[in-house]
What we know:
Layout: H1 4-10, E1 14-19, H2 23-35, E2 41-44, E3 60-61, H3 66-76, H4 78-99, H5 101-104, E4 111-115, H6 120-140, E5 146-147, H7 151-154, E6 161-165, E7 169-170, H8 173-186, E8 190-192, E9 197-203, E10 206-211, E11 216-224, H9 230-233, E12 240-249, E13 260-263, E14 268-273, E15 276-281, H10 299-313, E16 321-331, E17 339-344, E18 347-351, H11 357-375
Parallel strand pairs: 1-2, 1-11, 2-8, 4-13, 11-18
Antiparallel strand pairs: 3-7, 4-6, 5-6, 9-10, 10-11, 12-15, 12-16, 13-14, 14-15, 17-18
Bound molecules: flavin-adenine dinucleotide.
Amino acid sequence: MFSIWEQQSFQEEIDLIVVGAGITGLFTALHYQRRFPTHRVRLLERGPHPAGASVKNAGFACFGSPSEILADIDAEGLDAALSRVEERWLGLQEMRAELGDENIGFESTGGHELYSEGDPLYTRVADRFDELNRSLLPIFSQPAYEWRTTRKSDLGLNTGHIARTALEGPIDTGAMMRTLLNKTIAMGVDVRFQQTVTELVSEGDTALIRLSDGNAMKASFVVVATNGYTSSLFPGIDVVPGRGQVLLTSAVPGLRLKGTFHMNEGYYYFRDYRGRVMLGGGRHLDKVGETTTDDAITPLIQGSLERILREVILPDCDFTVERRWSGVMGFRTQGKTPMIEHLSPRIIIAAGLSGMGIAIGTRVAQKAVELVATSR
Ligand SMILES: Cc1cc2nc3c(=O)[nH]c(=O)nc-3n(C[C@H](O)[C@H](O)[C@H](O)COP(=O)(O)OP(=O)(O)OC[C@H]3O[C@@H](n4cnc5c(N)ncnc54)[C@H](O)[C@@H]3O)c2cc1C
């Protein structure tokens, strides 16, 4: 008994459904709607608001620390590693241009990597530091990194050496996601929260989407942007969940820390946030246990984070921990290249951002949109 108005305005076939309102899903919907203004685009998110890694990370706008890039060069070769750095750098520029630095709280503080005194990692990085800067020159048109050993006392850190890049900095992740969500809605995308997708099937020239409330809907194409949660929809897919744990201290009087910081080959990362310290990482201490989609914190990893606070970041200060949380990323079993491909004629997957989604989310989304456009 649907009226002609209901049928025409609310039940017309949808051109594109995007599943997941993280940075990838929102940018996919935004880019697609901009490219095809007359198409009907719907975005389905199971949370009451974006609820995945995009709102759980520590807000680093980064393209890779020296040790991370050198490890990538050794694992995959120079060209592959450099093209990932370029992808991250371009993605960050595009995200900042699209949303505006003031709206995403970008601060041009610089990014850093720490090495303790006598750390073999320092020797490995120092030996190849100039060569790395030379390799990165075509991307940045300036030396990406410099040694800033004198800054260690300025920042209150207990460390040996600091490599710095002026090209990175922190963002306010929540403000970034809110700005992106508002822009996507303003573009005309029909964003629906508390809609959990349970099944997707290609049926002829449409895709059928079933929801946990028993409803179903059809679309010409679906882009699945559920990153670390994708294996719940497609068991066996090569996108493996990886949990990251974070803590935030209470305000630390006289905090000298400013900027974003990596240490232990990126296994730990921290920054200042409104006079507090935000610190995450430690996943390597329990890789099996952290291969999960469960949001939870564990004493092992939280204990290691607190030890780093005491020994390296706030050696001379008392602090209390105000908040702890976790987020789920999506990793490939081989390499770090995201999966952007057809799972079936009408269903495209855009997932496996390998802990780099702040940087590459908009680029992954553009590629997913291109795949839909060329499949029409
Ligand atoms: C602790 C931590 C630190 C990080 N640090 C960095 C960093 O320094 N730099 C960087 O670039 N990146 C970093 N990342 C990674 C970055 O946050 C992610 O790569 C990025 O947010 C992934 O975005 P996404 O949209 O693909 O996935 P998500 O943000 O996870 O979005 C997926 C969405 O899908 C929804 N969903 C899942 N299943 C369903 C379903 N069945 N039905 C409907 N909706 C569903 C989820 O609720 C979620 O909102 C970090 C992540 C974490 C957790």
